[in-house]
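Homework help board

Subject: predicted structure for assignment chain

Our instructor gave us this sequence and asked us to write out the predicted structure in token form, then describe one feature. I got the tokens but I'm not sure how to describe them. Can anyone check?
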Amino acid sequence: MSKSFKKQAILGFFLTMTVFLAMTQKLYAVEINLDKPWGGFTTDKIQKISGVISGFNGNKATLVVNGIPQGLLLTNGRFSVSIVPSPGNNVIEIKAGGASKTVSFFAKVPAKDIKIVLIWDTQTDVDLWVIDPKGEKCYYSSPSTSSGGNLDVDVTSGYGPETFTMAQALPGEYSVQVQYYSSHSTPITRVHLYVITYEGTPREQRQYFQFTMTKAHQVYQIAKFQIEEN
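My token output:
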């Protein structure tokens, strides 16, 4: 066998393997498809995010909503969560296995003086409690208060988010507590809390708090913040 023929055979082998590997990578590549949202325009006060991830063996992806990251529970590759969109432009990103999918949409929704978003890092049940300056508590058993506070999104599994909003905030001190409702055999859970005031306006401010919970059914004080009288 001539040297030239050997070189051609070796080159042909490597070429075949390269094509095979490329086809295999394409076959098993992670693909993210969104059912909702598709982008564009919405007037929905609660926005559902749903879709499917194929070619990924994990049961947890990452969801980023307007810069806030959280875990995303996958069941047979499918996911579904609900969020409270911000007034104006919103950006949603899903990430898994090195792949990512981004979509943006414009929400024509009322502005909120207060938005509180709670997420956590284990698959368990965590409850958001918000106590307003009048002492009234907004939580899963009382999701709306006489002063206009609302627990817009309450979840019982996954990683959140639970979301409280108040269109016109009362002046005074607000207290934010979290109940570690069930550990589901996961004794340590880290919560991440975002307090956003006057969202979508020049006065917008964000505060971030984190806390590690270790005991199921315990109520933890996470944050206090003040709303000044106009």
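Reply (TA_rk): Your tokens look well-formed. For the description, you could write something like this. Residues 3-27 form the longest helix (25 residues). That's the kind of observation they're looking for.
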